[in-house]
């Protein structure tokens, strides 16, 4: 009896297939033989129905496996054709005929031909078999499968409820969905860019290769649907009428027997799983409505991964490409856009004055990050961008070649000025050296950060600061971790720093800074320090006594100014 064995992986989601029913012991004792309809053996059996009347089709709802001895079937060919046609029309899974009572050795040929034409599995039982044993075995199989699905659904509900309560991010939700399903899962936005994925042990490169084009070919009907041609179960992600993405789970359909077309649908538990995961993602987005979008979160993850070596560069390249930012075979430039110190309290530095406005700072940084993103789009540039600390927004520009570097930086700076009109006074742009490999990009990002930190007090109106622009301050920033530089700072300024620590209401370091930054012009220094000239002069005299130096000496003041720049570099987070 060819083709009646149970193949590996053919277990139906909830209901057994005709093929599986034929492999059950009570059926096998009846010596089954498939007469017609081999292509329909993978149809699910929703129930087993025993019938001995020709008009039984009117009592069926589809999915039943009909058992009969044939006693009550029509005697003429026309009647038998109509009987088979009615069963096929109502959608039964198959027909099993026990030989011996009505048909001694085989079913009539007209039945076999009609069943083959309609693709209806027709099986003979060549030995007498109690039908009750068959119905008991099949129904037990169905109930067990349904209990398994209920347990799986309960586990899914519990797992995703926990994730919702914990405020899990999109990556964790996708990872858990893939682990529960044992299948690859991908979360994309409406532009078909991958926000998170888990290959479930498969090759991630193959999974995401040409993702946008592949995804756009998937157009399932309804919010949740299965595309059997591609093997993807797709559901829409969103809430309150605002859809923002799709969650896709790959469950390849089984190849059918005969015509080779894919058959079958994903188990019910997978549909429940993907919809529950989508609900968790949508709820998380609503809870974090004031937080960065998922794209920005992923940009932040990739940028910080490059800066602190927390992720392999191959993984970063793959995830960036899936996000629509290819980094391979590109000229890469690290850029930092940071807020200048723009209030007296901020200018005073740590320990020198009042703290900056804790509430306004994050808001300014969010505004700056938005302006940077808009400037990149306006300049038609591609790159990763995200805040990297509480003062700066980092960018990794990906350019087609090195020749485009100066032009791209100029276009970005111009677009940012249009978006951020007060840029020269409040914001500066710093760029590192361009590199040709993602493995070298950390050097460019770190250099850009160092240039930005060194230039934060530079009053020049430069569109983009590069390393040659920052001179001594840039050099000192590069040497900030050098013990000999730190020793020099302590030797030059240690006594004054100790005085300020003991007298928090009378900070003298800011006075010295104002004097030196104004070129030792005492009148200008008094204005910069917001002090009267007598008060300013008196403070300078005390500074001279504390440090034991002559503040009219050019050489002494030069040494102190270098020490102040070095102190700024050391104190920079």
UniProtKB/TrEMBL annotation:
Q: Which residues form the signal peptide?
A: none
- CdaR GGDEF-like domain location is 313-453
> In this protein, which residues make up the domain named PucR C-terminal helix-turn-helix?
508-566
Q: Which domain of life is it from?
A: Bacteria
> Which residue range or ranges hold the Purine catabolism PurC-like domain?
20-142
Which family does the record assign? Belongs to the CdaR family.
PANTHER family, alphabetically?
A: CARBOHYDRATE DIACID REGULATOR (PTHR33744), DNA-BINDING TRANSCRIPTIONAL ACTIVATOR ADER (PTHR33744:SF1)
Q: What is this protein called?
A: PucR family transcriptional regulator
């Amino acid at each position: 009896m060819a083709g009646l064995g149970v193949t590996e992986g053919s277990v139906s989601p909830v209901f057994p297939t005709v093929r599986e029913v034929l492999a059950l012991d009570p059926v096998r004792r009846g010596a089954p033989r498939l007469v017609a309809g081999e292509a329909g053996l993978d149809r699910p059996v929703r129930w087993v129905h025993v019938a001995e009347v020709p008009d039984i089709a009117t009592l069926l709802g589809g999915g039943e496996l009909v058992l009969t001895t044939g006693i009550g079937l029509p005697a003429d060919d026309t009647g038998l054709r109509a009987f088979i046609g009615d069963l096929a029309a109502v959608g039964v899974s198959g027909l099993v005929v026990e030989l011996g009572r009505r048909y001694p050795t085989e079913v009539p040929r007209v039945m076999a031909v009609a069943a083959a034409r309609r693709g209806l599995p027709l099986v003979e039982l060549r030995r007498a078999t109690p039908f009750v044993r068959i119905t008991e075995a099949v129904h037990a199989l169905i109930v067990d499968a349904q209990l398994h699905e209920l347990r799986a659904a309960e586990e899914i509900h519990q797992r995703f409820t926990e994730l919702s309560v914990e405020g899990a991010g999109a990556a964790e939700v996708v990872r858990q969905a893939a682990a529960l399903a044992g299948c690859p899962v991908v979360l994309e936005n409406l532009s078909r860019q991958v926000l998170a994925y888990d290959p479930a042990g498969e090759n991630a490169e193959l999974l995401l290769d040409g993702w946008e084009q592949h995804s756009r070919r998937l157009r399932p009907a309804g919010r949740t649907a299965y595309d059997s041609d591609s093997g993807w179960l797709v559901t829409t992600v969103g809430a309150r009428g605002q859809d923002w993405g799709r969650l896709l789970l790959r469950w390849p359909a089984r190849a059918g027997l005969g015509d080779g077309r894919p058959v079958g649908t994903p188990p019910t538990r997978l549909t429940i799983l993907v919809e529950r995961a989508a609900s968790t993602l949508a709820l998380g987005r609503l809870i974090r409505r004031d937080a960065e979008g998922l794209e920005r979160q992923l940009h932040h993850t990739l940028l910080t991964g490059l800066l602190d070596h927390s992720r392999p560069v191959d993984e970063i390249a793959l995830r960036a490409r899936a996000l629509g930012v290819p980094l391979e075979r590109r000229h890469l430039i690290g850029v930092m856009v940071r807020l200048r110190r723009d209030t007296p309290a901020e200018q005073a530095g740590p320990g020198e004055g009042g703290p900056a406005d804790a509430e306004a700072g994050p808001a300014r940084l969010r505004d700056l990050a938005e302006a940077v993103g808009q400037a990149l789009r306006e300049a038609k540039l591609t790159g990763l961008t995200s805040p990297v600390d509480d003062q700066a927004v980092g960018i990794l520009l990906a350019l087609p070649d090195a020749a485009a570097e100066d032009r791209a930086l100029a276009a970005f700076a111009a677009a940012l000025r249009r978006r951020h009109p007060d840029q020269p006074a409040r914001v500066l742009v710093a760029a590192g050296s361009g590199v040709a490999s993602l493995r070298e990009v950390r050097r460019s990002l770190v250099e850009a950060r160092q240039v930005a930190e060194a230039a934060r007090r530079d009053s020049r109106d430069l569109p983009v600061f590069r390393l040659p622009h920052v001179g001594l301050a840039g050099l000192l920033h590069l040497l900030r971790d050098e013990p000999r530089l730190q020793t020099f700072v302590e030797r030059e300024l240690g006594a004054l720093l100790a005085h300020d620590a003991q007298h928090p209401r009378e900070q003298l370091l800011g006075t010295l800074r104002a004097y030196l930054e104004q070129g030792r012009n005492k009148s200008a220094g008094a204005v910069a320090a917001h002090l009267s000239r007598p008060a300013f002069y008196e403070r300078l005299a005390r500074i001279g006594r504390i440090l034991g130096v002559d503040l009219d000496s050019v050489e002494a003041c030069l040494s102190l100014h270098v020490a102040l720049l070095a102190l700024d570099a050391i104190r920079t987070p």
